Amino acid sequence: MALEVLPNISVLISIWMETLFYGMYVVLFFSSIFFLSRARNTIVQGWVIRLATILMFCIATTHMAINVRRLVEGFILPTDKTETLSYLYDIHQPLNIVKQYLWVFNNVIADGIIVWRLYTLWNFQVCILPITLLLSTTAFGLVSATSLLPQIGAGNSIFVSHLSRFATTQYAISLTNNVFVTGLITGRIWYVTRDICASESTTSSDYRRAILIVIESGALYALTQVVQLAWYVAKFPGLYFVADSFVQIMAIVPTSVVLLVALGRTLVEESQAAASGVLSDMRFTGGATKSSRTLGSMMDGCGLDRVMSEPKFKSGSLPTQSQVLLPSGASTELV
């Protein structure tokens, strides 16, 4: 016997789950905005990425607000349970159609950011197919919101035949695009970082590398789309419980990518820094040479970073021993 879920239960659980993801997203969004304003990485200094991040938050917040409005109209304003069920069963309500438009617009921005990350790791030619698939997904979503949803009569579900065929195609194209892009990003990150990570292979570093690859490649979003498509094709009512959460996850994943890039904590940036010798913390082992030990003590005890940022001598003249704050005897020890 097919599992049936009353709409009043599914709506409550769905909005409750969306609230949890929205709370996480709020923290992530404001963190990303803070670090974007301080980022020195030229990749994220442009206004396009910042505007896209803000628009995603506005869309996700509007989606959350609409669901709160549905709670009021579905559970508070009706005088009895019959009116509540009648309202919730009517999926072509204007608020539901607005939610579909919000899903489409959020999907465009979220997938666009993932494609942008693909572009920064590869080149524009590699992005042509993902952009084409993204435009196709957007077209199917707009047709569903504009033509199909308003034609569904009250009492029908989202699994009605003429909507199901269209929605399945839309979800399948979106999933194909995300799996393709995720695979390319993952492969590129692994290829670029393989030598550095192999030289520093430990259990903790391997776990960290795996976690960063999952975040940076958008693998979590691709996984949620697998669940969404599988449950929709199977007409599994559990989809009602998580449908609203997908909008928040859709925004969380690309915002996490932007935050990692802004922080300079992606595996690619860290590997490039390590390969070029730009290390955030220099440590000298016991087998270091005499000159390196002396340089290490100078950095630790003499404020070399302060000296480099605040020179005490004029341009074109040679500094004296006191001007660079060298300890007595250090100049002869380096020779």
Brief descriptors of the model:
335 residues, mainly alpha, 13 helices, 75% helix, 0% strand, globular, disordered C terminus, transmembrane
Return the average pLDDT rounded to an integer: 75
Total individual domains:
2
Q: Which structural class is indicated by helix and strand composition? A: mainly alpha
Spans of at least 5 consecutive residues whose pLDDT stays below 50 are: 278-315, 318-335
Biggest β-sheet: count, sense, barrel?
none
SSE string, helix = H, strand = E? HHHHHHHHHHHHH
Strand content: under 5%
- Total number of helical segments? 13
Radius of gyration (Å):
27 Å
Helix content: over 70%
Shape estimate: globular
How far apart are the termini?
86 Å
Would you write up a description of this structure?
With 335 residues, this protein is mainly α. The protein has 2 domains: 7-275; 290-334, no CATH class. Helix content is 75%, strand content 0%. It has 13 helices and no strands. It has helices at 7-38, 47-76, 81-89, 94-121, 124-148, 161-199, 203-217, 219-233, 239-263, 267-275, 290-301, 304-309, 330-334. Helix 2 packs antiparallel against helix 4. It is globular. The chain starts with 6 loop residues before the first helix and ends with a helix. The relative contact order is 0.12. Mean pLDDT is 75; it is low at 278-315 and 318-335.
